[in-house]
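Lay summary. Proteins are chains of building blocks that fold into shapes, and those shapes determine what they do. In this project we predict the shape from the chain. Here is one chain we studied, written as its sequence of building blocks.
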Amino acid sequence: MADPILKIGQSGLETTEEKVRALTNRIVNAETPGFKGSDVIIRSFPVELHNAQNRLQAEDPRIDGTFYDQSAGPLNRTGNQLDLAIGGNGFFAILAPFGEGYTRDGRFALDSEGRLVTVANQYPLLGKNGPIVVTPGSKIDISQSGDVRVGEVIIDRIRVVDFQDKKNLETVNGTIFKNPSAAVAAVDVDTPRIAQGFVETSNVSEVNAMMDLVVLNRIYNMDAKIVSVRDQIMSKALEMGKVQ
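And here is the predicted shape, written in a compact code that computers can read:
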């Protein structure tokens, strides 16, 4: 029969390692435009302890899923006519290999076909009429509402969408998300606030991330000590049993 204290300690080490991996990913991408920080959700240990006491058995902490912080990051002025940022809620709709994708990373460029595409992965930016195509070398003006003007002609409007519940969104790389649930449909934002010449930076605070790393290190060391002490106690108990 497995020792419940060792099981709890081992689970504590494993869940802490997962939190460190998520934290490391946040730190690495702290300078990535449009990046959304994530963290693993661990079932509350006090709740599990209460349940264990009522059932007269131990319950170890466990990971319940991943949480993505969809709060907006600060805006950084670049002056690039193809850099865009959303000043309120919503995502840029893009066309990805898996279907429609969503991002707050507003760094765009023109590909060889004249399509506006994401700098990362070269995914076409979607307008109301599909991928937005302009003549290379043209001066592009984009209004706050998302109208794309080439010269004196409005050729399309950028499609900005939002979700009532963003918890169902799955990340592709931390900046691009997909919606695997047909039950939660994307809703077009009719009056977006788009800023041309700006990009949204990561919503990760490097200072907070480093503080979290210190805390996780202490928790890991505590869990490791629990396992070590419990192992020593069990070893002594076994030795005493042999003597008797």
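What the prediction tells us: Residues 206-243 form the longest helix (38 residues).
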